[in-house]
Amino acid sequence: MTGASGGSADRPLPAELVRLLHDLRGPLNSAVMHLEVLKRTVADDPTAAESLRTVLQQLARLSDMLPAALGVAALEPQPPRTHDLRALAERARDARGHARVTLGAGPWPRVTGDEALLVRAIGELIANAVEATPTGAVPPEVSGTSGPDGQALLAVRDRGPGLRTTNPTLLIRLLQSTKPGHRGLGLIIVERVARLHGGTLEFESLADGARVTLRLPAAR
After folding, report:
1. What architecture (CATH level 2) is domain 1-220?
2. For 68-90, how does the pLDDT look when each residue is reduced to its tens digit (9 = 90+)?
3. Cα distance between residue 154 and residue 173, in whole Å
């Protein structure tokens, strides 16, 4: 599975983070400008020129990471309400146009939290599963069950190539995606939403695909 960006719960950065982003970009842009000048002076030294190109590429990557990181950090829940987990999954599926994704039979548990953020997190997991599913394979399945420890479990199962690792530290990394054109924000967002709701994110690599489980406290 890979990270995918976008969703229905995009919220603008708070004014203080906009100012912080502007302040951070000042010295970054200045460094790039001076390095571009230096690039002309090392044209005859292939090793130095290559190193300078690498520095410029990494600074460009950093410039892209800053608004992404602040955007994830700015995600904060609105006053919580109680929701049917299946209804949230159905809304997330339909919002992304993934009609072929199946939802498991009930009963599904209920959870308490920010509806828009939960829908976005579930939508990111569904989008990842759809992207991992080869043409002609069984569509992804989303199921909701109650855990023995008072938790609500939402599992997204795909029949793709599986996961290269189940270590969350290696999977959930900013702007790290194996899909061309994707910014790799999906799992970062899901983990942030999970933590804001007192939940966790778990990964399983199966013989014929993968399963990602979002664990949330069940509504009392």
Report:
1. 2-Layer Sandwich (3.30)
2. 778 777 788 889 999 999 999 99
3. 22
